[in-house]
Design a protein that fits this description.
Distance between the termini: 35 Å
Strand content: 5-15%
Oligomer: single chain
Order of helices and strands: EEEHEHHHHHH
Strand order of the largest sheet: 3-2-1-4
Shape: globular
Number of helices: 7
Number of strands: 4
Radius of gyration: 21 Å
């Protein structure tokens, strides 16, 4: 989200009502969702404590959108893997990975839309967006599995072999290298799928 002006301040009161200080009116999560889609930056504060609760409100918007029964963007397997990273020492890599993936996706958004228009126009029988989504999700989930906590010696996993340093020490560097390789693969496939169609 980018904006050249200061973000709008939204206050959340004890009765769960949201107040837009810029328009001096109460708003709903649907209003905030539309603000996000319109690229309008905002921050949400707890009216009583003054705490910044923007993250939790944005998460609540996602929950609401996922529950509407329309388009679901978050695969169940991904959600399970994401939950597993909370309080995990490697969890610090996840935000950077997610941000990198979404930035790469948005960078090629216009090319993907144009490619889809060619497909819908009957020029190509294959839906490249659908195929790209499948491949990206597969790559993403594969990379996430590298950090699963259920490895030998880890919480919930079997004991590590005697004398082993454990994946937290000996395997961390190799794991990070593998993650970078997977990121490179995903970027390459994204670039290939978003190339303009040959005439």
């Amino acid at each position: 989200m980018s904006s050249t002006t200061n973000p709008t301040t939204i206050k959340k009161y004890a009765n769960r009502r949201l107040y837009n200080t810029a328009t001096s009116s109460y708003v709903t999560l649907d209003h905030l969702c539309q603000m996000v889609k319109d690229n309008e930056d905002f921050v949400v504060y707890d009216a009583k404590t003054g705490d910044d609760i923007t993250r939790s409100v944005l998460t609540q918007i996602i929950v609401e959108e996922e529950g509407k029964g329309g388009q679901n963007l978050l695969p169940i397997s991904f959600l399970r893997q994401l939950i597993g990273f909370y309080d995990d020492s490697l969890g610090g890599l996840v935000p950077r990975y997610l941000e990198y993936s979404m930035t790469a996706f948005l960078r090629n958004e216009e090319q993907m839309r144009q490619y889809m228009e060619h497909t819908l126009g009957g020029l190509f029988p294959l839906n490249p967006i659908g195929e790209m989504n499948k491949q990206n999700i597969a790559l993403f989930e594969s990379a996430m599995k590298m950090f699963t906590p259920f490895y030998p010696g880890g919480p919930g996993g079997p004991p590590a072999p005697p004398g082993s340093e454990g994946p937290r020490q000996a395997g961390d560097e190799a794991t990070i290298i593998e993650l970078q390789n997977r990121l490179n693969i995903m970027q390459h496939q994204l670039d290939e799928l978003t190339k303009p169609p040959k005439t």
